[in-house]
Write a structure and sequence with these properties.
Domain Peptidase M1 membrane alanine aminopeptidase: 220-436
Radius of gyration: 28 Å
Protein name: Aminopeptidase N
Bound molecules: (3S)-3-amino-4-(1H-indol-3-yl)butanoic acid, zinc ion
Structural class: alpha+beta
EC number: 3.4.11.2
CATH topology of the domain at 16-183: Immunoglobulin-like
CATH architecture of the domain at 16-183: Sandwich
Largest sheet: 8 strands, mixed
Family: Belongs to the peptidase M1 family.
Strand content: 15-25%
Distance between the termini: 15 Å
Shape: globular
Number of strands: 33
CATH superfamily of the domain at 16-183: tricorn interacting facor f3 domain
Keywords: Aminopeptidase, Hydrolase, Metal-binding, Metalloprotease, Protease, Zinc
Number of helices: 26
């Protein structure tokens, strides 16, 4: 496979000012006529990309160009062009046969496109790269009965009926864009719409399209879009620049959604919701993803990426923006204390995701900087690193500049680059211009290393206290092991990062100490230490006794902190830390310590016992006054197996999962009365609302129910069955079902599972939940999953369905997947290969399940290695999967 390198970037030697596309849509055989206005700006022939296309004709300035063009694999090369030329290409493609869901495809009888990253080349021949920006006009023609709605980017300028029952629509997008933002949708769709006035007074039309019959489920999506439009105006003074903004839900979609200019295409899972069929988590994901795609209109579309190495320019920044949007929406309308807690809850959720998905990636064979240096298949680089770590890198810039400074920096970025395709470095330069103004003599040169170096830095903290001088010295020392290609001979040595490290100090009673530095600089209770070298020291004055440090408050940098707390200190922080994030963190650290110690004991054959102090620490959180339910639920949730595994020298996933379950069960039994009280105190009678307070109550109540079930506590099964039967929203129904399936008796569990399917079999998004529950259930084996694959509702071709069963089993069922007989791994190999024949992008995501095989105990790592090798040697393997398994085996 060919490796593409960032350093080899060259500008495209032609401008393409306008693109006119005419589609004669037919599911079996679609014809595309493309007219390009081309102007030479550099050297060489015009080289266009195309994949799976049948070339019909090539003309230049109205003349047949036969003999002066060549097709070589996936490129079309045109020679002999003058300085200016009109190139016209006619080609054909087969949307119905497109199971990869890249380019033009048909889902549930509707035409959709997906062009990012390199899907436009499956629609027509074109320089398929983000730095070629053009104005598009599009004509769509199709049978009017089967495809009554014909949608594309921009404004609808003409519609007409044609002969033979066909009709056409003409669309013009006033904004130049790269081809990855092109979109069309054609089919029979229903829609919901609203009009709003932007803050400069323009009226805009907002529309959400979906399958006929689903119109009752699009209200939350439309309201979320309205909230997103308002938020971007308020927070960053960014206004919707179009007259019409459309969202369309697709049943078959490779990712979450796509930000095509004015015509966002969404996985239906992030559009459709009502209280009966969608959970609190679904509602919150809908708002977040709608926000995310809408925010791309400025961060991604108005200013786009020069090349795909810069992907985090738009993705990291837009994830940061959607995180801020969600935090603001959660805090909206609450008093100051509740608002602060709601923001902390959001921060905790984001950090949990980062630690579970990105930290392992950053330590494994696919480790890459947020701006990768090379790739074989760009589809493999839509990663937690580019997205989630990318967002952390933006957040650190906001921390260093302050929110007001960051807003000025973003305005400067748009002032410099609106309408351009730029690099991550251009973004940092705009931020740096503000940073340097506000901090004379300083710059972001060390900070830029976050873009070029991979791996999670570790920061070791040392505290020294001198009773005589009443001084406390804090030393921070950072290190970051080389990862991925950084380990290869000749790779440059790793340099220190610029780490904003927020810290507080508590006295022995847990009271915050005012932080006065030796240079006279005084802050109330949190100091932001900027570590830019391997190690550095800060001294605080007027401190009587050795304090307890509260470290990396609000997770001010994506690093791992090393500090040897005593159990007593962690318990103190859990009770008293004024920083709610650090308070949560203390509980997680204590739980991690307890579960890891018990796992070691189990491996040594000793019986499980949960220490009294830990139970009391958990009781204190469960019963402490003044904590809201959402926060309490997070603070009482044990760290996930994925996070715990990162702390083990060699991972024994079954032992770990068993000990985590036993810990949960022991907490259920020891604190049964308190959990029962939590169930009673957090009922949400009345009409369902997904607001964060109600969702928080449901989260705590359902955690309590699951914990009681895990502890096999008297009355828990009846409680769960009662909740399942009487629930008036999907959150409560599914939580009860999940507790029963995971911890209940087999007959009760089978009965409710059958009942659930019976009720919801006509709703694909709920059927996905039904498959997921079974895929992840304790007790599920490969045989169970293979049985479910023969269910009439199962199809590997639909990514949501494949994710709900196959992915969930391989990624989130430690007991079933990691069986010592290797059956889980053989199943993984068979599914990677089956998916690869249909949809390489999805197959490559499944392939990553064994990324970190070397981290497992030898009884598991060896069979993992064998199946990885088997997949790698499979003839005809896609570039996508080849890259993943080859890197895993390197
Ligand atoms: N920017 C979008 C990326 C995307 C995508 C990439 C590869 C294959 C299919 C895809 N669908 C969407 C999503 C986003 O981050 O907003
Ligand atoms: Zn995005």
């Amino acid at each position: 496979p060919v490796t593409i390198r960032r350093q080899n970037y060259l500008p495209f030697p032609y401008d393409i000012a306008t693109v006119r596309l005419e589609f004669d849509l037919d599911p079996a055989d679609t014809q595309v006529r493309s007219q390009l206005e081309v102007r030479r700006t550099g050297e060489g022939p015009l080289v266009l990309n195309g994949e799976d296309l049948e070339l019909v004709s090539v003309q230049v300035d109205g003349r047949d160009w036969a003999g002066r063009y060549q097709v070589d694999g996936d490129t079309l090369t045109l020679d002999g062009l003058g300085t200016q030329a009109r190139v016209e290409i006619v080609s054909r493609c087969r949307p119905e046969a497109n199971s990869a869901l890249m380019g033009l495809y048909v889902s549930n009888g509707v035409f959709f496109t997906q062009c990012e990253a390199e899907g436009f080349r499956r629609i027509t021949w074109f320089p398929d790269r983000p730095d070629v920006m053009s104005r598009y006009s599009v004509v769509l023609r199709a049978d009017k009965k089967r495809f009554p709605q014909l949608l594309s980017n921009g404004n609808l300028v003409k519609q007409a009926d044609l002969a033979d029952g066909r009709h056409e629509a003409h669309w013009e997008d006033p904004f130049p864009k790269p081809c990855y933002l092109f979109a069309l949708v054609a089919g029979a769709l229903t829609w919901r719409e609203s009009r709003m006035r932007t803050r400069s007074g323009r009226e805009v039309l907002l529309q959400v399209y979906s399958d006929p019959g689903s119109e009752g489920k699009t209200q939350y999506a439309l309201e979320s879009l309205e909230r997103a439009v308002r938020w971007d105006e308020r927070r960053f003074s960014l206004e919707l620049d179009l007259d019409r903004f459309m969202i369309v839900a697709a049943r078959d979609f490779n990712m979450g959604a796509m930000e095509n200019k004015g015509l966002n295409i969404f996985n239906a899972a992030y559009v459709l919701a009502d209280p009966e069929s969608a959970t609190d988590a679904n509602f919150s994901a809908i708002e977040a993803v709608i926000g995310h795609e809408y925010f791309h209109n400025w961060t991604g579309n108005r200013v786009t990426c020069r090349d795909w190495f810069q992907l985090s320019l738009k993705e990291g920044l837009t994830v940061f923006r959607d995180q801020e949007f969600t935090a603001d929406m959660m805090a909206q309308g609450l008093d100051a204390q509740a608002a602060a807690s709601a923001r902390t809850v959001k921060r905790i959720d984001d950090v949990v995701t980062l630690r579970a998905a990105q930290f392992p990636e950053d330590a494994g064979p696919m480790a890459h900087p947020i701006r990768p240096e090379s790739y074989q298949e760009i589809g493999n680089f839509y990663t937690a690193t580019v997205y989630e770590k990318g967002a952390e890198v933006i957040r650190m810039q906001q921390t260093l500049l302050t929110p007001a400074g960051f807003t000025r920096g973003l305005a400067e970025y748009f002032r410099r680059h609106d309408g351009q395709a730029v690099t991550c470095d251009d973004f940092v330069a705009a931020m740096e211009s503000v940073y340097a103004q506000d901090h004379p003599g300083r710059d972001l040169s060390v900070f830029r290393r976050w873009y070029s170096q991979a791996g999670t830095p570790r920061v070791r903290v040392t505290i020294e206290h001198d009773a005589a001088t009443r001084r406390c010295t804090v030393t921070l020392a950072q290190r970051c092991e080389p990862v991925g290609v950084e380990r290869l001979p000749g790779a440059p040595a790793k340099q220190p990062f610029h780490i904003p490290f927020a810290i507080g100090l508590l006295d022995a009673q847990g009271r915050p100490l005012p932080l006065k530095q030796a240079d006279g600089h005084e802050v109330r209770d949190t100091a932001l230490l900027e570590l830019t070298t391997e190690h550095a020291q800060w001294t605080f004055e007027n401190i009587d006794a050795r304090p307890v440090p509260s470290l990396l408050r609000d997770f001010s940098a994506p690093v791992i902190v090393e500090y040897d707390y005593t159990d007593h200190e962690l318990a103190l922080l859990m009770r008293h830390d004024g920083n709610a994030f650090a308070r949560w963190e203390a509980g997680q650290q204590l739980a991690t310590r307890v579960i890891l110690a018990a796992t070691r004991e189990r491996q040594e054959g000793r019986p499980f016992a949960l220490h009294r102090d830990f139970i009391e620490a958990w009781r204190s959180v469960l019963t402490a006054p003044g904590l809201d339910a959402a926060y309490r639920a997070r603070a009482l949730t044990l760290p996930s197996e994925k996070t715990l595994a990162e702390h083990m020298a060699k991972v024994d996933p079954v032992a770990l999962a068993a000990v985590r379950d036993e810990t949960l069960g022991a907490l259920g039994r020891a604190l049964a009365d308190d959990w029962r009280a939590a169930v009673q105190a957090n009922q949400t009678p009345g009409d369902y609302s997904p607001d964060p307070i109600s969702a928080g109550k449901r989260a705590l109540k359902n955690l309590a129910l699951a914990t009681l079930m895990a502890g096999r506590v008297d009355g828990a099964t009846e409680q769960a069955l009662g909740q399942y039967d009487t629930a008036r929203n999907m959150t409560d129904r599914l939580s009860a079902l999940s507790s029963l399936v995971n911890f209940g008796a087999a007959d009760a569990s089978a009965r409710v599972l059958a009942d659930f399917y019976e009720r919801w079999q006509d709703d694909p998004l709920v059927v996905d939940k039904w498959f997921t529950l079974q895929a992840t259930a304790r007790g599920t084996t490969v045989q169970t999953v293979e049985g479910l694959m023969t269910h009439p509702a199962f199809s590997l071709r639909n990514p949501n369905r494949a994710r709900s069963l196959v992915f969930q089993f391989c990624l989130n069922n430690p007991y079933g997947f990691h069986r010592a007989d290797g059956s889980g791994y053989r199943y993984w190999a068979s599914q990677v290969l089956a998916l690869d024949a249909l949809n390489p992008e999805i197959a490559a995501r499944l392939a990553r399940a064994l990324d970190r095989w070397v981290r497992y105990v030898p009884e598991l790592s060896e069979p993992m290695r064998q199946v990885l090798q088997q997949v790698r040697s499979h003839p005809g393997l896609s570039r996508n999967v080849t890259e993943i398994v080859s890197k895993a085996l390197e």
